[in-house]
Amino acid sequence: MVEQPRRVHFFHGMLLSADDLEVEQQYHQQMRHLHNRLHGFGVVSGLEVTVGRGTVRVEPGLAIDPCGREIVVTQPLTLRLERRRHRDPAEPWLRDLVITWQELPEAPVVVSSPHSHDTTEHTRWVEQPALSLTAAGEEAPESLLLARLSRTTRGSVRVDATARRSYGPPDTGSAPGATGS
């Protein structure tokens, strides 16, 4: 479960620390992710999947993962398809292409301290989604399925995007305004 929301109470003359600013950021991120989850998860736009020579490509787009985090793809992403030498190249397989939110540190700086050795800290986080192939139906709970890939006995790879979820609340199966019995 999510931690109880906490935000900074600012007042005139308050000396701000890095921790105060971090708590403020976490509060707004947590509230935004909870709001996103209210509407569901899935692909908002774009993120079309195509297969080329030994690679799979995902076009720019936007999605919301099951945790409510925004997955923003601004440039095409590519992933090399697996090549196992011990397997028959024509052996068919079925894999799920998933995208996962991740953040990577950026812009390192040296931090000097009079009481200890210098350390390196980063000044930014970059949200950079990651693509991966998983066994069909076995994606991690925080991942978002983009397409199911299948390799035929002839070695060609087909893309099935019908399993992907569009952004929005889950379909409850009842008509609008209907009540249960």
Describe the structure concisely.
This protein is mainly β and 181 residues long. The chain has one helix at residues 18-38; strands spanning 42-46, 49-51, 55-58, 61-64, 70-73, 77-80, 93-100, 103-113, 116-127, 130-135, 144-151, 157-160.
Walk me through what this model shows.
It is a single chain. The chain is mainly beta and 181 residues long. The chain has one domain. The strands form four sheets. Strands 10-7-11-12 form a four-stranded antiparallel sheet, with no helix packed on it. The chain is elongated and about 70 Å long.
Shape: elongated
Q: What radius of gyration results from the CA coordinates? A: 22 Å
Helix content: 10-25%
What is the string of helix and strand elements? HEEEEEEEEEEEE
Report how far the terminal alpha carbons are from each other: 32 Å
> How many structural domains?
1
Main sheet, how many strands, which sense, barrel? 4 strands, antiparallel
- Which segments are poorly predicted (pLDDT under 50) over 5 or more consecutive residues? none
Strand order of the largest sheet: 10-7-11-12
Class of secondary structure makeup? mainly beta
Strand content: 35-45%
